[in-house]
Amino acid sequence: MKKEVIEVPVMSAKVRALGLPCSTAVNANGFVFISATPPVDMMTTKLDLNSVKQNTPAAA
Fold first, then answer.
1. CA–CA separation, 38 vs 26, rounded Å?
2. Which of 5, 22, 28, 43 has the fewest Cβ atoms nearer than 10 Å?
3. In a 3-state reduction of DSSP, which class is residue 11?
4. 32: which strand partners?
5. How far is it, in rounded angstroms, from Cα 4 to Cα 6?
6. Mean pLDDT per 10-residue interval, the chain, length 60 residues
7. What is the CB-side half-sphere exposure of residue 39 using CA atoms within 13 A?
């Protein structure tokens, strides 16, 4: 299977710099696979857990 890593401006370089074991987007076998990325502050390159919101079900 032929695979092509798609460079996403700014994001791909930051993901590589952080040493994350993923590609932002990959074209393989006629499909484009998009990778989720952790909540990383791209300015500080640190995890930003405060940016993750928890969804809670509405009261019935």
1. 17
2. 43
3. helix
4. 27
5. 6
6. 76 76 81 78 74 64
7. 6
